[in-house]
Design brief:
Order of helices and strands: HHHEHEEHEEHHEE
Strand order of the largest sheet: 2-4-5-7-6
Catalytic activity: ATP + protein L-histidine = ADP + protein N-phospho-L-histidine
Radius of gyration: 24 Å
Bound molecules: adenosine-5'-diphosphate
Largest sheet: 5 strands, mixed
Protein name: histidine kinase
Oligomer: single chain
Distance between the termini: 55 Å
EC number: 2.7.13.3
Membrane topology: Multi-pass membrane protein
GO molecular function: transferase activity
Number of helices: 7
Length: 272
Amino acid sequence: MQGIGINELNQRLTEPRSKDELHQLTQSFNRLIQRLQGGVDQLKQFVSDASHELRTPVATIEGHANLIKRWGKDSKEVLNESIDYITSEAQRMTHLTNQLLQLAYLEQNQPLHSFEPSEVISVIHDIQHQLSPLHDRIELTSDTYSHAILAGIPADILQQILLNVVGNAIKYSPSGECIHIAVDQTSQDVYIHVTDAGIGIPAEELPYIFDRFYRVDKSRSREYGGTGLGLAITKRLAESYSGEITVQSIIDKGSTFTIRLPLETEHELISA
Ligand code: ADP
């Protein structure tokens, strides 16, 4: 009776053919209710987490607006500092709201539109280029890829995934250590490994870091401009294209995030 819809269940529950069928129908009904309850609970948690996250920047903005009201006329220093805070918190709220909207969209499992596969190495070069003002040591471990590697994911989505993972690698490598990106492939999949020698993640926290709003160290992450949503979005994006993201990490030694994506095989390989 798995996969039976609510309307059919209702209909059959009114006229069960046997005691056995009534029992099975009741069990299906209970399972359905449990699933719905799970969905409602998740939604409640999402709304409560989101409001909690938005409350902090709102409180900061309110506090600085009050400072301006009281001291702004007398002190240029207070005025400028508070305006800076208000601007950066407003930007943070915009970023957070955009991330929340994207996550809500991804969690509805929207059907995917048709798309062009992406060429992995050129997307990595784009990322290196985009991030180079922030960090000049993002190295593609081997630059001798002699052919195009096509992944079954649109280039802009792969870019978003990599920007987030490489961005985190930079953020959580405070001494400016080098970030390595390596690519390998099997007959079916392409693997992109992003390795940093940064602060690492404690083993007991690893199972949770792809959960939304999860941050290993809330105050530290906030200091770096983190929201705790980036990896949750990244995971759902990879999964939307039949991929996945995994992590290995050792505290104080660094982390490797591996993104697996389906290899696009119909296209001919380009020789170097
Ligand atoms: P944030 O916006 O806080 O960076 P993410 O969802 O991207 O949120 O990451 C969740 C948490 O995982 C981060 O707050 C951080 O504690 C941890 N994390 C992610 N990437 C790394 C990394 N490369 N090194 C160490 N910790 C990391």
